[in-house]
Amino acid sequence: MSAPLSDNVLHGDPGIEAHPPRHELPIDATGGTPMQRSEVKTIFEKGSPGRRAFSCPKVDVPMVEGLLPDAYRRTEPARLPEVSEPELVRHYVNLSKRNFDLDSGFYPLGSCTMKHNPRLHERVAGLPGHARLHPLQTPKRAQGALELMYNLERALGSVAGLPHVALQPSAGSHGELLGVLLTRAYHEDRGEHRRKVLTPDTAHGTNPATVTMAGYEVVKVGTNPDGGVDIEDLKAKATTDVACLMLTNPNTLGVFDPNIEEIAHIVHEVGATLYYDGANLNAVMGISRPGDMGFDIVHYNLHKSFTQPHGGGGPGSGPIAVSDRIAPYLTVPVIEKQDDGTFTLEHDPAEGRPGSKSIGRLRGFQGNYGCFVRSYAYICSLGAEGLKDASETAVLNANYLLAKLRALGVTEHLPLAFGELCMHEFVLSGAPMKKDLGIKTLDLAKRLLDHGFHPPTVYFPLLVDEAFLIEPTETETKETLDAFAEAIAAILTEAGEDPAIAQNAPYTTPVRRLDEAAAAKSPVIRQPL
Fold first, then answer.
1. Where would I find the Glycine dehydrogenase C-terminal domain in this sequence (predicted)?
2. Distance between CA atoms of 70 and 82, rounded to whole angstroms?
3. How many whole angstroms from its chain centre is CA 275?
4. Burial profile 365-375: b = 16 or more Cβ within 10 angstroms, e = fewer
5. In sequence order, what are the beta bridge partners of 298?
6. Domains of the chain by residue range
């Protein structure tokens, strides 16, 4: 439940009208929380000349000149902060307190799968043999790493139901780009020059961006009343100049499309490929496989479905799996297991082998290796039955939370956008809430921060008015889901009495509500030292 809001807070902020005291938030009479009142300084603004956190011992080996060319030598010392160790530690600890993180609260961002990252996997990735392995190490001295990547490829291929995997892509969007480039190579090798790629109107924004980057024309496919692909619209747009259909199943509405086999038939009948966006794979692992549905190309998000930390800009990992007909165009080098049981990186695969008609490299080296270690540890820890259990629990948690919101009367103002049940996530529409209570989805999201919850995804997917996309994941307890549902219900009750409270939230966060439009138009990205 929300902590109460006092008159002192309301009078202290000129942008908020005064209200009778309802609750008491932990804010004092000077206006704002201590963190809101504190003067925020960068590390460069702290300290004093000559102050040090560490002093290096004197060099006890002979100096050798000329090892570094003069063109690469500094002419003056680097302008680094001059602070003591306690100042340095406090600065970064206090910065961490200003962020919301999965270790401190529920993080139900929809279509993002902000999954718990088991500490065991972090420890495994930090072992010296993994963390200190140089990317230019010769294959014969990196056999353990190559074996791990080889086994990870086999495991991911088994999950997707497709036999050939490439680990290079650095993110899901990077994997998308590789998938579309492989599609292009496949068609061009057959003498076909297709111009269009189909994407549903529920697609992630990266799908049309990827299509454009690859030089294709984006063609939107509509959604039917049940939340799946509009079959008649697909038939009308699936012409012989279509290269591919990019699809997520279950999709961003949290709906598994029961027409997937018919969709695959329509796409393949015109000679196009079928691409699976693996953002929602954690709903079906061990239950259904994209390859069995008819998909030719699948990308995984190791930072969504396989416990690689996600957020903050990376690193990510977006491997892809492909069918036999796409395999010749895969990136190189390919990890191959030799007859004597050792592993090698094959830069020029033999005719008929994966990569024999390769489009080349997508990035330097083989990908973000630390992501591979964590994901492989996760797969080995759970095994096939454990992965299936994770998916079933993700779907159970989402449907339990939806049922709880219905029981509390929340869906009167936030109805489910499509269907009656969901997969691992669901989309509510805040349109009735906006009309009846006078608060928008954004207001609800901001007010949730005062209850200690990170808000779900808002205003996506775009086809849902005032969209509120919730994904509880498989790692949250019933008690957490209950508290989250009760917080939403309390905010709606509060809005029925006084919508201005939610309209001006949040009150307890380190930074109050920002003018996001102004920040986007006039960002401050540099600060003088």
1. 390-495
2. 27
3. 19
4. ebbbbbbbbbb
5. 276, 321
6. 10-43+84-117+384-521, 133-367
Q: How many CB atoms lie within 10 A of CB 406?
A: 15
The secondary structure of 395-429 as a DSSP string is HHHHHHHHHHHHHTTGGGTS-BSS-SS-SS-EEEE
φ and ψ at residue 382, rounded to 5 degrees: -90, -35
Highest CATH level, class, for 133-367: alpha beta
pTM comes to 0.88
Helix (H, G, I), strand (E, B) or coil at 85: helix
> Which one, of 319, 488, 338, lies nearest residue 401 by Cα?
488
The pLDDT tens digits of the residues spanning 316-361 come to: 899 999 999 999 999 999 999 999 999 999 999 999 899 999 999 9
Of 44, 43, 37, which is closest to residue 12 (Cα–Cα)? 37
In the predicted structure, residue 1 carries a pLDDT above the cut 60: no
Residue type, 488: I
The pair phi, psi for residue 245, each rounded to 5°, is: -115, 125
According to CATH, what is the number of the domain 10-43+84-117+384-521? 3.90.1150.10
Who contacts 74 (Cβ-Cβ below 8 Å, separation ≥6)?
none
